[in-house]
Design goal:
By secondary structure, this protein is α+β, with helices and mostly antiparallel strands. It has three domains: about 25-130, Sandwich (Immunoglobulin-like), CATH 2.60.40; about 135-200, no CATH class; about 210-305, Immunoglobulin-like (Sandwich), CATH 2.60.40. The protein has five helices and 17 strands. Strands 2, 4, 7, 8 and 9 form a five-stranded mixed beta sheet that branches. Strands 1-3-6-5 form a four-stranded antiparallel beta sheet, with no helix packed on it. Strands 10, 11, 12 and 15 form a four-stranded antiparallel beta sheet that branches. A hairpin with a 6-residue loop joins strand 5 (about 85-90) and strand 6 (about 95-105).
Length: about 300
C-alpha cells in the first residue's frame, strides 16, 4: 500500500512539474478584442475599393475565428447584414486578424454598425458607411456643362432649341447639380437625377423659324415666300418634316379655307393663291403626318407664321 501511495505521489509531482514548465499561452484565453479603425467607408453600386478593418486581440490563440454581428446605432438592437455587401473574415494570427467588407453592384447606401467577437470577447461598436454612388450622375452633368459644376457652361446652344424644351433641360441639369452636392442624397435621388438628364436631352426640340415675305403678284395670282431659318435649317434636318400651309379667303359666311401640305421641304417655299389679301398661315411640323382635319395637328410643331 505504501508503495502505491509513493508511486501516486511521484506521478502527481511529475505532472505538476510539467505544468510548471509548459508555455503559459497554451491555456491562455482571449481577454480583449479591438478593431483599429472605428469607421470604414465603401461606395454603393460598385465593386471596390473595399473597407478593411484590423482586429487586434490579447491572448487569442492562432486560428481563433473572428465573427461579427450587426446592430443598430445603439449597439444593442440586432440588425441585418447590409444589403449587397460581402464580408471576408480571417482567423487570428499573431493576435491580429482582418475584416474586409466589399461593395457590390447591388450595395445599398446607408450607415451600418457591427461588433467583432473572438471567443467570448466583443469589440466596441464599429461603423460602416456605404456612400451613394454618384459616378454616373457626375459624368452626365459634366457631359452637358463641363467639369466645373458650380459654374455650368452649357455645351449646347440655347437658341438651337425651343424655349420650353430648353427650360426643361436646364431645370434637369440644375436639379442634378444640387443632388450631386447634397451629401445626404439617397441612391434613388441620384439615379432619378441621372435619368432626368437623359430624358431632358431626348426631349430637346430643335428650334426653327418661319418667315413670310410680302405678297407679290405671280403664280396663280399672288405669291408669298415662306423661309425656314434656324441652326438646323438644312436638307438633312428638314428631311421627314412637313410644311402645312393654310389659306383663308374672305370672312364670315363667305370665308373659304384651304390647306396644303408640303413634304421634302427646302429652306424656302413659294406658295400661291388667287385672291389678294388672302391670310396665309404656315406650320413647320415633324414626328409624323399632320392631322389636317383636326384642331390638333397631332405632331410636333417647330415654328409658326401668320400673315395679316
Amino acid at each position: 500500500m505504501e508503495t502505491r501511495i509513493r508511486k501516486g505521489l511521484a506521478k502527481l509531482m511529475a505532472l505538476c512539474l510539467v505544468l510548471m514548465i509548459m508555455p503559459v499561452n497554451v491555456f491562455a484565453a482571449t481577454s480583449a478584442v479591438t478593431v483599429g479603425a472605428q469607421v470604414g467607408t465603401i461606395t454603393a453600386a460598385t465593386t471596390g475599393p473595399a473597407a478593411t478593418f484590423t482586429v487586434t486581440t490579447t491572448g487569442a490563440a492562432d486560428g481563433e475565428a473572428v465573427t461579427i454581428d450587426w446592430f443598430e446605432a445603439d449597439g444593442t438592437t440586432p440588425a441585418t447584414t447590409p444589403a449587397g455587401a460581402t464580408v471576408v473574415l480571417t482567423a487570428v494570427a499573431g493576435n491580429s486578424a482582418t475584416i474586409t467588407v466589399n461593395p457590390v453592384l447591388t450595395s445599398v447606401a446607408g450607415t451600418y454598425y457591427f461588433k467583432a467577437t473572438v471567443e467570448t470577447e466583443i469589440s466596441a461598436l464599429v461603423t460602416l458607411i456605404i456612400t451613394p454612388n454618384k459616378t454616373a450622375l457626375t459624368a452626365a452633368i459634366t457631359a452637358e456643362v463641363g467639369a466645373i459644376h458650380t459654374s455650368p457652361v452649357y455645351i449646347l446652344t440655347i437658341t438651337d432649341y425651343t424655349t420650353v424644351s430648353w427650360n426643361a433641360y436646364t431645370a434637369a441639369i440644375a436639379t442634378a447639380i444640387a443632388v450631386e452636392a447634397d451629401a445626404s442624397a439617397t441612391q434613388t435621388e441620384i439615379d432619378d437625377a441621372t435619368t432626368a438628364i437623359a430624358t431632358s436631352i431626348t426631349g430637346l426640340v430643335r428650334a426653327y423659324t418661319l418667315a413670310s415675305s410680302v405678297e407679290q403678284a405671280g403664280g396663280a395670282g399672288y405669291t408669298r415666300d415662306i423661309t425656314i431659318g434656324g441652326a438646323y435649317a438644312d436638307a438633312a434636318n428638314l428631311a421627314g418634316k412637313y410644311l402645312v400651309v393654310q389659306f383663308t379667303q374672305g370672312t364670315g359666311t363667305t370665308v373659304k379655307v384651304s390647306v396644303v401640305m408640303i413634304s421634302s421641304i427646302s429652306t424656302s417655299v413659294t406658295v400661291s393663291y388667287p385672291d389678294s389679301g388672302t391670310k396665309v398661315e404656315a406650320w413647320l411640323t415633324g414626328g409624323g403626318m399632320p392631322k389636317l382635319t383636326e384642331t390638333d395637328l397631332g405632331v410636333t410643331v417647330y415654328a409658326n407664321v401668320t400673315t395679316d
